[in-house]
Design a protein that fits this description.
It is built from 3 helices and 19 strands. The strands form 2 sheets. A 16-stranded antiparallel barrel has the order 1-3-4-7-8-9-10-11-12-13-14-15-16-17-18-19. The chain starts with a helix and ends with a strand. Helix content is 10%, strand content 53%. 37% of the residues are buried. The radius of gyration is 23 Å and the shape is globular. The longest helix has 21 residues. The protein has 368 residues and is mostly beta strands. A hairpin with a 6-residue loop joins β16 and β17.
Length: 368
């Protein structure tokens, strides 16, 4: 009897071992990031001190893996959750009452010499392009997404896209491309589709990227101040419906380049956005960013400008400065600041048109 039990145990262990060996490169990874935030202009009642999660980069955990299928083919997947380290809640949701378990990414791909085909919730080409040139990595108080497209670039599906099939080309001579299509997924929902296209050229210290996206189903529901188009409710036909429509059309593009000089990296980017509901609202954006290596740490600085062209006093400027210091290969200390100055017709990062905002962040990040 004991011999039979031992043989059964060995058989089970052998089965489990075979299943594990069939899956290669399974990795659990993540970021734990939290610190103090002081803000002077976003909240009713005045300045606020708060513990915030994901200031330098959003807190997350994920599972990723790949398998060699032979014949030059492989498959890979990513399931990535976003969470708030300060209270343990999920960060991303399909709505305020429907949280997502893997709200950051959830996709599977088939990869080979032909490139890569990816299916699921994934980043758009706009996300990659703007993230490549913002010294703050489209995060922190200085997040360029908060200004590009007057904040529209931070929204689904401009940033992340559900129900999406994308294709990434092989890199040839430093040049590669990315194209994606988001399906409406319900009968008669073709008008909620999204199409994006991006091109990348990388050659040593030089990086150049351009991206265009047409999104027919951007959700502006509840999209009031202090974020994005709530600032122009009284002045444009789009603003008049911004808090009720779930089908606003957005055409947006960004192009930029960066050059790494060794001691410093310089980046420039330009964006143009048109949002359409009852009428059109046009916005232009500009970014100048620099990262300077200071000992083992880095000094980061950027200037962002948003111009809502269809209203008077529609210019916002944001000036940002930060420093991050690596305590180890996995852990950083950081300090960031951003000053937002609004024209008389806009209120990015503020409660009323023409108001300004100061934000300061101090914290620690650990990657695993």
């Amino acid at each position: 009897m004991k011999l039979k039990k031992s043989l059964l145990a060995l058989s089970v262990l052998g089965t489990v071992s075979g299943a594990v060996s069939a899956q290669t490169n399974i990795t659990l990874y993540g970021i734990a990031d939290a610190g103090m935030d002081y803000d002077t202009g976003k909240y009713v009642g005045g300045s606020v001190w708060a513990v915030r999660s994901g200031q330098q980069n959003s807190s997350r955990f994920g599972i990723k893996g790949s398998e060699d299928l032979g014949g030059g083919l492989s498959t890979s997947f990513v399931l990535e959750n976003g969470f708030q380290l300060n209270d343990g809640s999920l960060k991303y949701g399909a709505s305020a009452t429907t949280p997502r378990l893997f709200g950051r990414q959830a996709w599977i791909s088939l990869d080979g010499g032909f490139g890569s085909v990816k299916v699921g919730r994934q980043y758009s080409s706009m996300y990659f392009a703007l993230g490549a040139f913002d010294p703050f990595g489209i995060s922190t108080a200085a997040n360029a997404q908060n200004l590009f497209g007057y904040g529209v670039d931070a929204l689904d599906p401009i940033s992340r896209s559900d129900n999406t099939v994308s294709y990434t080309t092989p890199t040839i001579g430093g040049l590669s491309g990315l194209a994606g299509y988001k399906f409406g997924a319900t009968p008669g929902s073709a008008n909620t589709s999204t199409k994006f296209l991006g091109v990348t050229y990388a050659n040593g210290p030089l990086l150049a990227m351009a991206s265009y996206q047409n999104a027919d189903g951007v959700n502006f529901s509840g999209f009031g101040a202090p974020s994005a188009l709530g600032a122009i409710v009284a002045q444009t036909s789009l603003g008049a419906v911004a808090n009720t429509t779930t089908g606003t059309k957005v055409d947006t593009g960004v192009a930029g380049a960066s050059y790494d000089f060794g001691v410093a990296k310089l980046a420039l980017a330009y964006g143009a956005t048109k949002a359409s509901a009852v009428g059109d609202v046009r916005m232009n954006n500009y970014l100048v960013g620099v990262t300077v290596r200071a000992g083992t740490g880095s000094v980061l600085s950027s200037w962002n400008r948003s111009h809502v062209k269809d209203i008077s006093g529609g210019v916002t400027n944001m000036y940002s400065l930060g420093y991050k210091y690596p305590m180890s290969k996995m852990t950083d200390l950081y300090a960031y600041s951003a000053y937002t100055r609004n024209g008389s017709g806009v209120r990015l990062n503020a409660l009323v048109n023409g108001a300004s905002d100061f934000e300061y962040q101090f914290g620690i990040q650990h990657r695993f």
